[in-house]
Every structure is written in structure tokens, then in C-alpha cells.
Specification:
about 130 residues; alpha/beta; Rossmann fold
């Protein structure tokens, strides 16, 4: 039996481009929350699917991913998201903030200061 074949980081390239355009608009217009059309994901809605899609859009093959949920690396959600990207993108993952190039977090920022080579995907439960 063959394992399923996924696009790199699950999302199709057209969706990734759409999300990247939204990210550029968000950076260009400070304080502006940019909506994007969320795609169906293989995880329950409300478990960070928006943040997962942003991470999928920016993640590269050479990146190392850290996932934080509610301030912890070992919650069910953090582990599920980390395993999702290990499977669909075959990227390295870590629980050490300084080793990560992409950090996806829900509700809390890392206590360790980030450097210029790190990207933080900060997801909130409900945008204001």
C-alpha cells in the first residue's frame, strides 16, 4: 500500500500565493488585519487552522519548525501540528526556540528573544 502524496506542507501553490499576498498586505498596512479564504484542513476548525495555513504558506524545505500552544510544546494541539508538518513537509522540528526558523504560536509569544532569521506566526483565536 502506498502512502498518500501531499503537496509540500499540504496546501496547493495557488493557496500559498494567496496567503502570501495577504501577509504582504498585512505588513504594508500596520494594524490592518487581512482576511483570507481559509481552506479545509485535516484538523478541527478552531484548533489553529488559520495559523497552520500561514505556516504552510511560508515554510521552506530548509526551515526548522517550533510549535507552541498555550505556552507549551507538549500540548495535544502543538504535537499534532508539529507531526502534521513533519509528515506533509518533511521539515525538521524542534522544541528549542533558538533552533527554530519558523515559530508558530497560539496565544503566547516565546520567552526567548527572537533573532533576525526567525519568523513568528502568532495566531489568535478570534481577530478583533
Amino acid at each position: 500500500m502506498n502512502a498518500p502524496v501531499y503537496n509540500f506542507a499540504y496546501l496547493d501553490e495557488q493557496t500559498k500565493r494567496m496567503i502570501r499576498r495577504a501577509i504582504l498586505k498585512a505588513i504594508a498596512i500596520p494594524g490592518y488585519q487581512v482576511p483570507f479564504a481559509s481552506r479545509e484542513m485535516p484538523m478541527p476548525y478552531g484548533w489553529g487552522t488559520g495559523g497552520v495555513q500561514v505556516t504552510a504558506a511560508i515554510l521552506g524545505r530548509e526551515d526548522t519548525l517550533k510549535v507552541i500552544d498555550q505556552g507549551s510544546d507538549d500540548t495535544t494541539n502543538a504535537i499534532s501540528i508539529r507531526k502534521f508538518f513533519e509528515k506533509t513537509a518533511n521539515v525538521k522540528t524542534t522544541t528549542v526556540t533558538s533552533d527554530a526558523t519558523v515559530i508558530q504560536t497560539r496565544h503566547r509569544i516565546p520567552e526567548t528573544a527572537l533573532n533576525d532569521n526567525q519568523v513568528l506566526v502568532y495566531q489568535v483565536p478570534i481577530p478583533e
